[in-house]
TrEMBL record:
<dbReference type="GO" id="GO:0035435">
    <property type="term" value="P:phosphate ion transmembrane transport"/>
</dbReference>
<keyword id="KW-0067">ATP-binding</keyword>
<keyword id="KW-1278">Translocase</keyword>
<dbReference type="GO" id="GO:0005315">
    <property type="term" value="F:phosphate transmembrane transporter activity"/>
</dbReference>
<dbReference type="GO" id="GO:0005524">
    <property type="term" value="F:ATP binding"/>
</dbReference>
<keyword id="KW-0547">Nucleotide-binding</keyword>
<dbReference type="InterPro" id="IPR003439">
    <property type="entry name" value="ABC_transporter-like_ATP-bd"/>
</dbReference>
<dbReference type="Pfam" id="PF00005">
    <property type="entry name" value="ABC_tran"/>
</dbReference>
<keyword id="KW-0813">Transport</keyword>
<dbReference type="InterPro" id="IPR005670">
    <property type="entry name" value="PstB-like"/>
</dbReference>
<feature type="domain" description="ABC transporter">
    <location>
        <begin position="5"/>
        <end position="254"/>
    </location>
</feature>
<dbReference type="GO" id="GO:0016887">
    <property type="term" value="F:ATP hydrolysis activity"/>
</dbReference>
<dbReference type="GO" id="GO:0016020">
    <property type="term" value="C:membrane"/>
</dbReference>
<dbReference type="InterPro" id="IPR017871">
    <property type="entry name" value="ABC_transporter-like_CS"/>
</dbReference>
<dbReference type="InterPro" id="IPR027417">
    <property type="entry name" value="P-loop_NTPase"/>
</dbReference>
<dbReference type="InterPro" id="IPR003593">
    <property type="entry name" value="AAA+_ATPase"/>
</dbReference>
<protein>
    <submittedName>
        <fullName>Phosphate ABC transporter ATP-binding protein</fullName>
    </submittedName>
</protein>
């Protein structure tokens, strides 16, 4: 539970296109790190490299290493399927399986890893995961209904429940609130603050206030020029990045004076 991530000299490519250059950083356990930066600078690409989702795109690959508590996720001996169980992901648009019940949505990942699950085990995982995602009280009386019948914010919390049901070490979130209204957004932000007590959390967000509210550490990415690879310009405590950054580009972005 909750592991330290160390990224070393990560370069990421889509075929011949060099999308992200020379990223190195450390993410401590039980913390939230926000990735910020303008569109196309590679935030989601870096995020997807943290659970080996990048390489499923045809022609896509990366060099460098991503260590989870010292173990390189890119070591040839490491099974990418196992990596994705250890490092869960929540996407921009809530994506519950539409025909599955709420209960089966929560269990979907668990069933992939464990074919036999007793009824009582399943019930316990469902309750724990939904409680962990702050959704239990709202859905406990309709667990057999389809996940698609929930509101957008509830669906996103269902996806978080599905992600935590397999007990990952890390949770990656790619703009998890961008499709949600402000109330649902605040509910997810509260949840993120709780989740960091158990998991290492990395979130991509375009919302500066959100980064300031939920994260302990902020990483600012930028493109030096259109067509060039994205780079990590600066990383530090969220307090420092927002109030006293070292780089002018960071300050310009934070204060909205950006190109
Ligand atoms: N599947 C893909 N195939 C080829 N190029 C891609 C692919 N996905 C992303 N890219 C390119 O990689 C670069 C980084 O994209 P990425 O989506 O990681 O940026 P981002 O910072 O997350 O952007 P946004 O904030 O708009 O989501 C961009 O130039 C993008 O066009």
């Amino acid at each position: 539970m909750s592991k330290r991530i160390e990224i070393k000299d990560l370069n990421i490519y889509y075929g011949k296109f060099h999308a992200v250059k020379d990223v190195s950083m450390v993410v401590e356990p039980r913390s939230v790190t926000a990735f910020i930066g303008s569109s196309g600078c590679g935030k989601s690409t870096v995020l997807r490299s943290l659970n080996r989702m990048h390489e499923v795109i045809p022609g896509a690959y990366s060099t460098g290493s991503v260590l989870l508590d010292g173990v390189d996720l890119y070591d040839p001996a490491v099974d990418p399927v196992r990596v994705r169980r250890q490092v869960g992901m929540v996407f921009q648009r809530p994506n519950p399986f539409p025909t599955m019940s709420i209960k089966e949505n929560v269990l979907a990942g668990v069933r992939l890893n464990k074919s036999r699950l007793s009824r009582s085990e399943a019930d316990e995982i469902v309750e724990q995961s939904l409680r962990g995602a702050n959704l239990w009280k709202e859905v406990k009386d309709r667990l057999e209904r389809p996940g698609s019948g929930l509101s957008g914010g509830q669906q996103q919390r269902l996806c978080i429940a599905r992600a935590i049901a397999v007990h990952p070490d890390v949770l990656l979130m790619d703009e998890p609130c961008s499709a949600l209204d402000p109330i649902s957004t605040l509910a997810i932000e509260d949840l993120i603050k709780q989740l960091k007590e158990t998991y290492t959390v990395v979130i991509v967000t375009h919302n500066m206030q959100q980064a300031a509210r939920v994260s302990d550490q902020t990483a600012f990415f930028n493109l030096r020029e259109h067509g060039k690879p994205g780079e990590l310009i600066e990383i530090g405590s969220t307090e420092k990045i927002f109030h006293n950054p070292d780089q002018k580009a960071t300050e310009d972005y934070i204060t909205g004076r950006f190109g």
